[in-house]
Amino acid sequence: MPLLLSLQRIIGRNPILIRHGPLATLTIMSSLLIGISIHLAVVYVNHNFRTQVGMDDVTLGDFNVSGSPGVSYVFLRWLADMFSIDMNGQTFSVHWSLVGACGHQYTGSSNDSCIQNQFVNNVALYLNENASVNWNITSPIGTFDSSTVQNPPPVTYIPGRKQLPAEEYVTVLSFDPFLPYTLQKKSSTLYYPFDQHSAYTSLLAIDTDSNQSLPISGVMGYGSMINWIGSSVFYPTTVGNETLYALALILVRQDMVKVFAILLLLTSWGLSVAVLWMTVLVLFRANVNDSLILISTSVLFALPQIRASMPDSPAFGAFIDIAGYFMNVCLVSICTSILLISRLQYHCQSTVTTSEKPMPSQQAERIAFLMDRE
Predict the structure, then answer these.
(1) What pLDDT, on the 0 to 100 scale, is given for residue 210?
(2) pLDDT for residue 261
(3) How far is it, in rounded angstroms, from Cα 372 to Cα 13?
(4) Are 233 and 213 in contact (CB under 8 A)?
(5) Each residue of 197-214: b (16+ CB within 10 Å) or e?
(6) Distances in whole angstroms, Cα of residue 91 to Cα of each of 172, 260, 340, 367
(7) Strands 169-174 and 216-223
(8) Which residue has the higher pLDDT, 165 or 293?
(9) 332-362: b or e for each residue (b if 16 or more CB lie within 10 Å)?
(10) What is the pTM of this model?
(11) Helix (H, G, I), strand (E, B), or coil: what is residue 62?
């Protein structure tokens, strides 16, 4: 308070500040908010699309891809790009592409270096199959033809597109259906906006010329969609003389979605507490303007709109509803009822008191009557 009083005195004594102070303050605050908005937008975009797919060790570290046991530098590497999610159908769609290979027998080079978008084998990719069983009675999700890499189409010569794969295939994977077994409640929208959805699958790469399985080093999980971030965990497991490859694809909501949902939750609680404070003042006979009391009804109807503004929010029933929306509506409903009843009671009492008082004309006639009798 002393600081505010000092500022008021300084402004009051300076006519220039009185005249141009509001405009200068508005300009400074607007510039500050615009700068913060631009900074947040840049950080947001860089955070969600921060790493370009490649074969170098730095990129692999960013994607948390590690080599398979016993594979060393001879392997294939894949990309799983989660580009669409269907919350009602409990599925998400994945683009599969072959990033590249390492080792001269797979790249055709004179050394065992890793080369992006280079391989000499015709590769068929199977999901949820095992090399030790009759995998060939099923259809692969796609076959990656080496001839399109060795003799690329003209579109490859467009600047910036040389390292892009010539082929990609789309599959639809279901969310992990075993929640009743695992009880990982975070895998359901009950935990919105902190829910996490996963799909699990196994990988089998087959050389279509020799019908032999090919080693896989890892899979880069990527999420290229609004509101979600995709990642993956690669599980190579050695069983006897065979290496099996499993993959977990994971989707979590972006940080800005979480922050915005929590901000709306805090806004709902702030409005609810303000209505509660207004109710307490009225109950203790404080003088509160009728227009302020009517605001409580506006807050009651604003709460559902705030809940609906939460990005990609599920139907009512998430923990954020029980901790916020449900309690807010109950609190504001009770307070609004108390406020309206108290105001109606006040106005009724005022009307009765006014009606019991004699009118001025009646008082004058009575006085005149008494004077005549005297």
Answers:
(1) 87
(2) 94
(3) 68
(4) no
(5) bbbbbebbbbebeeeebb
(6) 6, 25, 49, 90
(7) unpaired
(8) 165
(9) beebbebbeebeeeeeeeeeeeeeeeeeeee
(10) 0.77
(11) helix
DSSP symbols for 162-186: TTS-S--EEEEEEPP--HHHH--GG
Cα-based distances in Å from 306 to 85, 265, 268, 293: 24, 8, 7, 20
Return the percentage of the chain with pLDDT > 90, whole number. 29
Say if CB 142 and CB 169 are below 8 A apart.
yes
Residues in the chain: 374
Q: Which tokens is 218 given?
A: 């890892």
Distance from first CA to last CA of the chain, Å, rounded?
67
- In angstroms, the CA 374 to CA 363 distance is 17
List of E strands, the chain:
75-86, 91-102, 114-116, 123-127, 142-144, 169-174, 196-207, 212-214, 216-223, 228-239, 242-253
Closest CA to 292 of 307, 308, 281, 304: 281
Q: 232 forms bridges with which residues in the sheet? A: 249
Residue 230 CB neighbours (<10 A):
22
| pLDDT (tens digit per residue) in 12-49 | 566 666 666 677 778 888 999 999 999 988 888 777 77
Distance from C-alpha of 221 to C-alpha of 219, rounded to nearest angstrom: 6
